[in-house]
Automatic annotation (TrEMBL):
<keyword id="KW-0732">Signal</keyword>
<dbReference type="InterPro" id="IPR036514">
    <property type="entry name" value="SGNH_hydro_sf"/>
</dbReference>
<dbReference type="GO" id="GO:0048046">
    <property type="term" value="C:apoplast"/>
</dbReference>
<dbReference type="InterPro" id="IPR001087">
    <property type="entry name" value="GDSL"/>
</dbReference>
<dbReference type="InterPro" id="IPR035669">
    <property type="entry name" value="SGNH_plant_lipase-like"/>
</dbReference>
<protein>
    <recommendedName>
        <fullName>GDSL esterase/lipase APG</fullName>
    </recommendedName>
</protein>
<feature type="signal peptide">
    <location>
        <begin position="1"/>
        <end position="20"/>
    </location>
</feature>
<dbReference type="GO" id="GO:0016788">
    <property type="term" value="F:hydrolase activity, acting on ester bonds"/>
</dbReference>
<dbReference type="InterPro" id="IPR050592">
    <property type="entry name" value="GDSL_lipolytic_enzyme"/>
</dbReference>
<comment type="similarity">
    <text>Belongs to the 'GDSL' lipolytic enzyme family.</text>
</comment>
<dbReference type="Pfam" id="PF00657">
    <property type="entry name" value="Lipase_GDSL"/>
</dbReference>
Amino acid sequence: MLFNWLRTKAMLLDWLQIEAMLLDWLRIEKPNMHVDDDDAFASTTAVAWPEPSHRRSWPLRLGSRPVTAALAGVPGSSPTHQPTAGAMTGIVQLLHIKPPYPPPNCHPAALRPFRPPKQLPWPTGSLVPAIITFGDSTVDVGNNDYVATIFKADYPPYGRDFANHKPTGRFCNGKLATDITAETLGFTTYAPAYLSPQASGKNLLIGANFASAGSGYDEKTAALSHAIPLSQQLEYYKEYQGKLAKVAGDSKAKSILKDALYIAGFGSSDFVQNYYVNPFINKLYTPDQYSSYLVGIFSNFVQELYGLGARKIGATSLPPLGCIPATITLFGFHQNGCVSRLNSDAQRFNNKLNAAASKLKKQLPGLKLVIFDIYKPLFDLVQSPSKSGFAEARKGCCGTGTIETTSLLCNPKSIGTCSNATQYVFWDSVHPSEAANQVLADALIVQGIDLIS
């Protein structure tokens, strides 16, 4: 009994320490977020921002509908942050941590030794110095605009709800989940697509995006659509390291790279655009065998990134592949309107991915590695869209919403494109809408707390 009492007391003290740290963040005045009709956020070219003409408070909460809608007077306008306190306040709100503080009968002096610094070390005021992204169309912010591939999103109606209502190369009507995550972490601009003209000078200080729509863990996946394969994305990253050192100096560059948040968003294209439609692969490997092959590549990728200085890595799981409108159209209706065997494949892959991550964390000292579960939040949206304020989850907004994606089918002349994408879980037949991305981003932040602590 004495042991149990001591253990309970220790747990309580740990919680009080955490509360004290959060309190010190929250004692700083909570900022207002603001938007500007002419905000340069859309182009990612600017580091300094013009004075805002509109101001709104930040009513961020877990599972909320698009934060943008509550913040902006103009649809798609992007908020900027007065960071530090604001970023931490948002995360506290996401975790549903509520006053009063401190607990009754707790002497405030006992909490003082655990007070964190009131200012973050990064000039941007963000919770990490930079975000560095690898992946496919779920995280591509425009690299494919500069690649000879059919997988492009540099034309309307893509980007119609983004800042300035212009396409940016994102496969969405507005922001990606990673864009929203960056905002929540306190960034006032997005890391540029590495192949874009904006990826130069001081813009490199906040990271870079190497993702390419149509890419995957499997090199053959990228080859099918002439996307940038994972191996080349890594080569670009090495090149980026050299450029960063020239801008920031060797010592500062190493610090940025060590403390940066690394995101990997691969896997969906490997299955949907390669394995399921490629008889040269699906006749040789079972889905389970192919999953093991991909997870092996993931492990090698993490080890290489670690060797290059990365210590905080987040990788996305597979979504419910059988609930994507395009796969439902191609492979038929099954349980709950989704293709059950595809969902089973995704779940088995995710289990292997989590097991590999656990092993890597034991092998690599100092590595923080999180697998972001996007399967459950997206599956919940598809199964019960009305609970989160959506009206349609079985088809996308663009065209008929059943097969359209990229310029071949989702284009300005697509018949039937919806007028209000916030009612749709999917923007086209493959990619979530900005509204759904907000829900996914909320989940990413909560799951990734360890990466920013």
